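Re: [help] complex structure
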Amino acid sequence: MPQGQPTTVPDDGLTTRQRRTQPVLAVHTGPGKGKSTAAFGLALRAWNQGWPIGVFQFVKSAKWKVGEEHALRVLGASGEGGSVAWHKMGEGWSWVQRSIENSEDAAREGWEQVKRDLAAETYRLYVLDEFTYPLHWGWIDTDEVLAVLKDRPGSQHVVITGRNAPAALVDAADLVTEMTKVKHPMDAGRKGQRGIEW
Amino acid sequence: MPQGQPTTVPDDGLTTRQRRTQPVLAVHTGPGKGKSTAAFGLALRAWNQGWPIGVFQFVKSAKWKVGEEHALRVLGASGEGGSVAWHKMGEGWSWVQRSIENSEDAAREGWEQVKRDLAAETYRLYVLDEFTYPLHWGWIDTDEVLAVLKDRPGSQHVVITGRNAPAALVDAADLVTEMTKVKHPMDAGRKGQRGIEW
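Output below.
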């Protein structure tokens, strides 16, 4: 239940209110489904709070998450909650004018923009979707990412999704959920289907 | 990746297309966060397909999921995707006129309506949020639920969330994800906060 009582009260000199508004770094990892889906579900809560939301899709193909993107764009434009900016590596980041063929370079360009936005406090919630992969593959330096996140100003929440989250990222995160695959239709020979998988 | 290849091709006499449009029973269980959140993320995809969505919140308090509810209501009313009907046990199911003090009776009333809607094919996606609890507690008979779900007409997808999913439900489901808690801010004495927890 969301409003349970903490099991320990830390001796950190902070009030409950101060602890409550600390920026959260969340990681959704593991081989199961629901990592990104839960991050976009979290974005619904942020939107409801009126927070500006920045989504950075660190995937080669821009085909995925069309449903989530459409929904969040409609929400962002509804005028009832927060704004939504949706950035896709697969289509070429909108702020990069030249074409980047190399996924490694493209991922780095994405991270550079995230850094600029964190410094400028552009968003209140960042969804760094599939961001664990460029970290896992060593394209982006995990230590640098953690240093930047540690020093981010204000109350900016960050959710990072993807398999194989580096151990240092898991250590640094405030909230880590591992999605474990118990059973999947593909095991029974069923392909992914519209509305369920994308 | 969503469009991976199945590892086996079953000898069930169905075409890939037939298998693709088979109704899915998904279960999000386990002690970690993201069970409901991922279900509501899934609802974004269903909405994008233009599917009518029925949410049944099987919880005593209606306070939770305000963000998701607001977002899905705005989406449902946007005219761009599917419709959204949101039913809350905590406020008293809208179709029940009398007051039900007893949670067990209230949960059963919820299930009776789900049965009627499945028979009428009212929705294309059903989110039965926290529905594992009345099953786990024996308030609603799991075997009956499984029999009704097995025989549901058409292509109606059902997502059931909550801890302690009965083994028979896990066996019957097409897709089961277990959310494992790796780390949570409450462990460090931080209370839940707005926009993150609700």
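The domain at 21-188 of chain A is CATH 3.40.50.300 (Rossmann fold).
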